[in-house]
Amino acid sequence: MPDPAASNAPELTVSELSNALKRTIEDRFGFVRLRGEISNYRGPHSSGHAYFCLKDQSARIDAVIWKGVFAKLRTKPQEGLEVIATGKVTTFPGKSSYQIIIEAIEPAGVGALMALLEERRRKLAAEGLFDEARKQLPPFLPACIGVVTSPTGAVIRDILHRIADRFPRHVLVWPVRVQGETSAAEIAAAIGGFNALPEQGPLRRPDVIIVARGGGSLEDLWSFNEEVVVRAAAQSFIPLIAAIGHETDWTLIDHAADLRAPTPSAAAEKAVPVRAELAASLADLGRRHAGATFRLVERRRNELRALLRALPQGDAIVALPRQRLDSASGRLHGALARTHDRQRIGLARLSHRLAQQSPQAKMGRAEEQLKALHQRLRRALATGRERRRQSLDHIGSRLTIARAARVKIECERATASRRRLDALAKRMEHGIFARMEARRAQIRTLAQLLGSLGYGQVLARGFAMVSDGQGKLVTKAAEIVDGALLHIKFSDGQKTAIAGPPKAAAPEKRTSKAPRKRDQGSLF
Question: N- or C-end of the chain: fewer Cβ atoms within 10 A?
Fold first, then answer.
């Protein structure tokens, strides 16, 4: 097989190529805004991060939202929702794919917002938060009015001026943001805060709450469509009036509120009546009462006059024929007495009836009825307070029992954990000792192996190790220069020598016929 043609292209590893592509994509695109539909979203991962895809008609891209960013998102991802995502394009070398790290997300246009709003409305309506049966009427004349709105806008001034013109009342303002990321949480906290105030004291609970904001687009009013705000309005046991935007603007809090006003000024009109109209109504009722009393007295006076005219007169009796005077004179006295008594009794009855219909009597009866109603009201208030106190005592006792049970469970759990920790500590101590003993045995074995393989054993067998003056090991005679300083190491110590040429052996005198021994010569 022929060899491939030589090339000057440098060789790259897979990691180097992946990192180069990653830097190129991040430098080329950086932060982008993508519009697409969310797909394959199954909620946050167990780690808190969210993984899904953005797609359109012909392409798709993987998307990631880190845990810290996901918790701060105003609009949470939903399957099938068309959004505009802002983030940084990068690559994932583990899969050789590119993806976008999302840092902000928002619905794509008014149509998406309306679809999200309609889905949320159906969900909350199915839970019963918009039922008319749970709504309550605001009081006719509240003593204190709570207002949840921005303290710097024109809305609060319109409400205060309208209340002052109609019927001045004490107004308690809870300042919040009515637009922005934290506005929904602030509005819900304000509603809950008003409900948490005590009924009596220098800062008492208001009798009615007005949640108001001026007009704006659907995006500007979106805080009042958040689920946390709608649930806070539905859970408020203080009557709540919603006045969001203009007359044509509708938000989810309008459905959950006890009463909806088309504008903030209309909310103030629904909260308090007109004092001048009340005074005129009272004056009209007073005039009607005085006229009815006068007409009743006049009618009774005419009836009395008619009765007086019907009574027989003395002149008429005297005008009877004289011939009957003698026969009737005996009966006349008795008849006159009986007639007089009968007429006196009738007059007394009429006088009694007239006295019962007098203004003083009616006012007395009305006063008695008012006192009875006042006593019933006091008894009802005392009974209601007693019932609430008993309910709170019951809840307190339940909380105490639950707390004691919880403390007992936690103590038992801590004791069991302590026991497990002691057992683990003992096991760890035993394991450490066993591991140390194994290491010691291994060190002893290695020491023996080192002793057997080291050069000390070689020196003990009669060899020597030669090194020059610089401590460099000498292995060949050619490396030694005459006169050089040498260090010779034996098994029992070290000696120093000076290198020199080898000496010729002197002839040995033979004194006998014994064979001549060879002289080994001197190394020194």
Answer: N
Distance (Å) of CA 45 to CA 48, 52, 89, 293, 343: 5, 10, 21, 81, 102
Banded model confidence at residue 447, pLDDT cuts 50, 70, 90: confident
Q: Looking at the predicted structure, is the pLDDT value of residue 5 above 70? A: no
Residues 146 and 246 in one domain: yes
Average pLDDT, the chain: 82
pLDDT for 65 beyond 70: yes
273, 299, 324 - which closes a domain: 273
- Find the angle CA(462)-CA(468)-CA(469) to the nearest 5 degrees: 130
Mean pLDDT of 97-121: 77
Q: What is the pLDDT of residues 413-441, one digit of tens each?
A: 999 999 999 999 999 999 999 999 999 99
Q: Are residues 26 and 65 in the same domain?
A: yes
Sequence-distant (≥ 6) Cβ neighbours of residue 177 within 8 angstroms: 150, 183, 186, 223
Does pLDDT of 322 surpass 70? Answer: no
User: 484: Cβ–Cβ under 8 A, 6 or more apart, which residues?
Assistant: 468, 469, 498, 499
Pairing mode, if any, of strands 144-149 and 170-175? Answer: parallel
Which CATH number does the domain housing residue 144 bear?
Answer: 3.40.50.261
Give this prediction's pTM: 0.43
198/74 same-domain check: no
Detail the DSSP E strand segments found in 363-510: 465-467, 485-489, 494-498
- Nearest in space to 148 (alpha carbons), one of 238, 74, 216: 238
Cα–Cα distance list, 84 to 61, 240, 500 (Å): 13, 35, 93
Sign of CA dihedral 256, 262, 267, 271: negative
Q: How far apart are CA 79 and CA 53, in angstroms?
A: 10
Output the pLDDT for position 521: 47
Does residue 165 sit in the same domain as residue 265? yes
Sign of dihedral through CA atoms 81, 82, 87, 89? positive
* Neighbour tally for 500: CB within 10 Å: 13
| Residue 194 pLDDT | 92
In this prediction, residue 109 carries a pLDDT of: 61
In the Cβ-directed half-sphere of 108, how many Cα atoms lie within 13 Å?
17
Boundary-marking domain end, from 214, 249, 273: 273
Amino acid at 181: E
CATH number of residue 74's parent domain: 2.40.50.140
Secondary structure (3-state) at 271? helix
